[in-house]
Amino acid sequence: xxxxxxLPHFLLQTPHQLNIPYQYHSIPPPPTHPPPIHLxxxxxxxxxxxxxxxxxxxxxxxxxxxxxxxxxxLLTQLIKRLHQKTVQQITYPS
Length: 94
Description:
With 94 residues, the protein is mostly helical. The protein has 3 helices and no strands. It starts with 5 loop residues before the first helix and ends with a helix.
């Protein structure tokens, strides 16, 4: 999925500023990618923040605690930083 450009830019600033580990990969979307809501006229930017998982297609997938905690920390910090002005800048860039 090609994401709305200001959103990934905002997303990548946060872990750099707060030293939250992350891996950035642009790969073809799996079946769990977000719906194409970002293509609607309502200007709803979207993207995915997956959790690295081993053996995802088995009954007991394996997730390292840090691989769960780091995306959770990132999402928490992103939500804290989403003020009205920031949302306007992401949704309607000049």
